[in-house]
Task: structure prediction
Amino acid sequence: MKNNYIQQIAGMLAKARVPFTLFGLSVGVLSANAQSEEDEVFELSPFEIDASKDEGYRAESTLAGSRLNASLRDTPASIQVFTKEFLEDIGAVNLEDVLNYSANVENGAGDEEAFFGGNFAERGFVNFQARVRGLPSSRARDYFAWQLPMDTYITERLDESRGPNALLFGIAAAGGIQNQSTKKASTASAFNRLVFRTDSEGLIRGEIDLNRVLIEDKLAIRINALHADGDGWQSNTFNRKNAIHGGLTFRPDDKTLIRMGYESFGQDDSVGNSFVETDTIANWINNGSQTFDLFSDNRIEQASANGTVSAPNRDTVLRTYGVTTGGTAPQVALIEGGDPSFNGTAVSRYRSLLSQNYVDSNGDGRLNQTYNVARTGEIYPYGVRFNGPGNQRSLDASDFVATIQRELIEDLYVQVDYAKYSYFWDTNPTSGSLRGDANSYWAGPDRTPATAVQNPNAGDAFIFQGNLTRWQTDREQETQRLTGTYAFDFAEKGDGLLSKFGSHRMAAGFEHVNYKSDQPVIRLRWFDAQTGIGAYHPVGPNAQNQVQSMKYIDLDDPSTWTGVALDMVGVPVTDPLDPSREIVAEWVSAFDSPWHVNQSIDAKMVSTQSFFFDRRLVVTAGYREDEGTNKKFLYELDDLQREYIPIGGNAFNSADWDVENYTAGAVFHVNDNVSLFYNQATNSNIPDAESVTIGSLENPGQVSFPGGGEGEDFGVMARLFGDKIDVRLTRYQSREDNALIGAGAAGNIDNFHDHIIEWWHEIGFGLADDPPAPRVFDDRVNRYTLSKASEGYEVQLTGNFNKNWRGTFNYSYTGKDQTNVGIVENQWFVDTIEWATRTVETWDTSTITQEWIDAGIVPTNDITEFEVENGSILADRIETANNWRANNMVPGPPFGLRRNKFNFFTNYTFHEGSMKGFSFGGGYRYQGANMMHWETDTNGNLSRIKGESTGYADGMLRYRTTMKMAGKDIKVSYQLNIQNLFDTDDPTIARYLRNDQANPADRLYYVRSRNFRLSATFDF
Result:
């Protein structure tokens, strides 16, 4: 339902009363010694950009092209600068707000990942993963690697460098990098700023920016602080952040500059879903919320005495009742809500029925699971989120940067940098689904009708959560850097031959980086409360000890549609399978995968910028080499086999690597207004220390190797109408080889391998011959490789059209193809499937033993009947694997690519007349249809299915005035930003089911509804 915007604005104003009152009480204290902010009085070194020189939406210079302070007009690389004024006009509070108006950026949080369908941010990553030119990008803070969210409360400006440029950063991905320049203390004058924000989602946000000059022109400090507390637009979502940043600038003399900055912040949040919930209950409700009985005398006809439904009858049961049976492993669940006698206890769902939606799509008696995804929000309101409130993240982080600059002799500068950031991110991404309880009975201790427990909640709805998982990311990065630069001009040598060789600037640097990361996968498992040993399997992390949860809800009250709060973790409960003991749910490290890694990098770099022919020709070149070592520490089970712990000492796998990168470009100024540019750069990415690929069939598990790529840009840039408008037209090509993809590939590569081959081997199944790879991977494979090639066009216009009018416009077209997709992995699938099929079809069934029968193997040579495990049929597993490969490991345009994008934002300010102080602005963000599944025509030809284009309008209204308070002039600004002005909230299709547009949508993107953001800024 659409909200009344007048009521929303009134509510925001009411919430804002407290911050405005606090401002009135504090202004007298903060105004001491306050003056208007002025430019620095000292000449900056070649390593620094003075953001105060930016005018309106236009910036004059950047460090992103060559590590030297260079005019954007002399820079051949494709760079877009978002100035402080632009950030304020759009009301930005984070990086995503800004990049909505970038030239060629998409949100890459899920489209190309095998984790598609989950929430990328919930696993301890930043909320917004930007794809630039269709390729992954990186982020930096003050030109140091940065992996955390970016907030505008300490942002002076944002430089976005598109395309390969590892020369500068080493860590930059092929798409480019976004660099946040933080606020620095100014020795020019004191100033104060207070900002208060609120929005229609309940945000309360306050920012303080104080600059104090302690010694005139020599020493200054700057303090920025933030408090933010707000709800998300979906239920059970929120964001609370407290941060403080302190900066110091010290100029002991006119040749030396010392800067320091330190930030500490904590953030607790629960991020919303990316996709519309899938309907897993409507069919059950429409059939009368049926309940079924597996354990009493009137049990389902096809069920045996112990409640088992045999394989030949499963399709009959499913087709008739629309449910599926549980597996053979224990399924012990925590209960919350529902009948008071069971609330706060544990029950056994062993052999129970789960309400799901299955259809016999082609009448062959085989069922396919289908999702009914609502496009209207009638079944599941878009603002309701199932997996709260336990699903939340907690982040604690700190960042320290120190810089010393010194001019040793004229035009020779040296800079020493030290940077260290560390953070701990505890995330609990509990996925939830809404289901109906079709079970008349829960399993008793011996899982027979005699001990079955009557289910008082039968026929009710519940939120189901299984495989409850946490990611605890503990990371630290320390960087030491030494850089020197020297400038010289041959024209100063006189009128001889040397004077024709132009002027030059050279920079050289050395850098050492040490990176540590520990990110174990923590899962909730059942343990014997007395002995501490796994409750249902001696190895605690084993899946048989998996904790599930059931939270019973009121279908008529969406506010109750949440998962369990997990308050029962660590509290002993009676074991439903053995009432003589108690069990307890505890978090343990569940994988022996080496998520504990160290990375050490030593880099050296040189770059030059040369000017010829009275500075008409500018040539930039550079070279960088990175040498590094990745260490992946090994894990082992502890003495009680409760969880995996690092072995310690020298127990690690080590890999050394060496990558080289170069850049070369030129700008030719045809005249004072028009210039031609060309740039070529390579991008051999530093290898990801936490990723594992098959590598080869002979060596299936290995650390990922460096990705290599290159790109080139050429085009025209112009300054028009008296330098009021900057225009850049770019034709680009970018390529990335050995790119990693597939965050969830482990579920389709090594699990497929283990379940089909290693499981058979464990139970003694006769292997016809050796499988095509070792039976167990040395490492948990979580990626595969491919090559990505991107090319297209970009049109970029930024203008201060006059003293009143600002504007920016961007258009991009991106063509992208992926090749060499999982060559080794695809062959591995082919070989494994062929081997598994041949093994079953040639098996001598007369060798079967009772042990194999007990393990679930039946004497058959038919892969459509042969059970792999837990009722899983080999033919179905092969079909699933082939479908996954057909959708993921194929060449051509990748998932999620939107070829066309354009956006604009403009603002008009009245400086005189009756409208003086008012500003009106707005913008529009458009992206073309996204690429989705492959579709096969009757001739077997493949073509991409396309989704839907998106377009959202934004609006802005501001009033600026001056007021007197405590005898001081205070500049006041009241601003309203409206995101998604027309409330275009219809979800857009992300993927179709089974590669067919005639089928329902498999995934729909949520669209954030209209949001009003009201800000008040006070400068004094």
User: Anything to note?
Assistant: The chain is about 10% helix and 45% strand. Residues 12-42 have pLDDT under 50 and may be disordered.
